[in-house]
């Protein structure tokens, strides 16, 4: 059948079948929280994947190492994050093929991601993610983030999603430059516990990643100890904080 002689409804269905862009996020992950400590970067994310408002998946890994020096974490649409990882695989492969003795660091990869996200936003085909990029290279720690429309910054601590409202106040009060690894993990766990209590999309199964000059390590999934006996949980008061 020639398209010129096809009915309008058929043309619409054919055009829709050829569309490859993400019109709405379907399977999404919630907050990523990261901070600098005295030896590197710590990053935490739970493993929940929400299908709409349903917590459908409980083992979604949202933190991935990039090359030798970097780690990326993502909230938002999981399939779009997989597309970002494909871009980064091509980037690091091309960099390795140059064989010039140099490798991309976290600052360069963060700059690349800001261009990718802003370019896709300008084409009205955004990647529905907020990305956190951390790394250590030549003794310098770096932590930055970029949103789905290309807004980007770097800071000593970062959180996406509800973490930006619930975890950042805790980090502003308790973060310090000389945090040890143990204190940094405790601070991240405190943030993740608050998110578990307050964010319906959070699950009690998380991973914490450590980025140092030696490389990236990601913990096995584990659960936090929680307490649900607070009076506000048992007898909530409408309008109370």
Which secondary structure elements does this structure contain, and how are they paired or packed?
Layout: H1 8-18, E1 27-29, E2 32-37, E3 40-46, E4 49-51, E5 54-57, E6 63-66, E7 70-77, H2 78-98, H3 106-122, E8 129-137, E9 140-146, E10 152-154, E11 157-159, H4 163-166, H5 168-174, H6 181-198, E12 206-212, E13 215-218, H7 231-234
Antiparallel strand pairs: 1-4, 1-7, 2-3, 2-11, 3-12, 4-5, 6-7, 7-8, 8-9, 9-10, 12-13
Subcellular location: Cytoplasm; Nucleus
Protein name: Proteasome subunit beta
Function: Non-catalytic component of the proteasome.
Write structural notes for this entry:
The protein has 241 residues and is α+β, with helices and mostly antiparallel strands. The chain has one domain (34-223): Aminohydrolase, N-terminal nucleophile (Ntn) domain (Glutamine Phosphoribosylpyrophosphate, subunit 1, domain 1), CATH 3.60.20. The protein is built from 7 helices and 13 strands. The strands form 2 sheets. Strands 1, 4, 5, 6, 7, 8, 9 and 10 form an 8-stranded antiparallel sheet that branches. Strands 11-2-3-12-13 form a 5-stranded antiparallel sheet. A hairpin with a 3-residue loop joins strand 6 and strand 7 (70-77). Its main location: cytoplasm. It is found in: Cytoplasm; Nucleus.
């Amino acid at each position: 059948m020639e398209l010129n002689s096809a009915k309008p409804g058929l043309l619409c269905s054919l055009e829709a079948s050829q569309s490859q862009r993400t019109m709405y996020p379907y399977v999404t992950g919630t907050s990523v929280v990261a901070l600098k400590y005295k030896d590197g970067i710590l990053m935490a994310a739970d493993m929940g994947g929400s299908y709409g408002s349903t917590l459908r998946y409980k083992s979604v890994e949202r933190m991935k190492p990039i090359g030798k020096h970097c780690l990326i974490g993502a909230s938002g649409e999981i399939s779009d994050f997989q597309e970002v990882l494909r871009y980064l695989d091509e980037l690091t492969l091309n960099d390795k093929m140059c064989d010039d003795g140099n490798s991309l660091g976290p600052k360069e990869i963060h700059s690349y991601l800001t261009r990718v996200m802003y370019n896709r936003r300008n084409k009205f085909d955004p990647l529905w993610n907020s990305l956190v990029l951390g790394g250590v290279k030549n003794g310098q720690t770096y932590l930055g983030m970029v949103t789905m429309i290309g807004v980007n910054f770097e800071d000593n601590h970062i959180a996406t999603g509800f973490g930006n409202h619930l975890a950042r106040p805790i980090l502003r009060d308790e973060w310090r430059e000389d945090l040890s690894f143990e204190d940094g993990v405790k601070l991240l766990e405190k943030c993740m516990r608050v998110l578990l209590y307050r964010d319906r999309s959070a699950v009690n199964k998380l991973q914490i990643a450590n980025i140092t000059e030696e490389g990236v390590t990601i913990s096995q999934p584990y659960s936090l100890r929680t307490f649900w006996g607070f009076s506000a949980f048992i007898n909530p008061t409408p309008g109370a904080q």
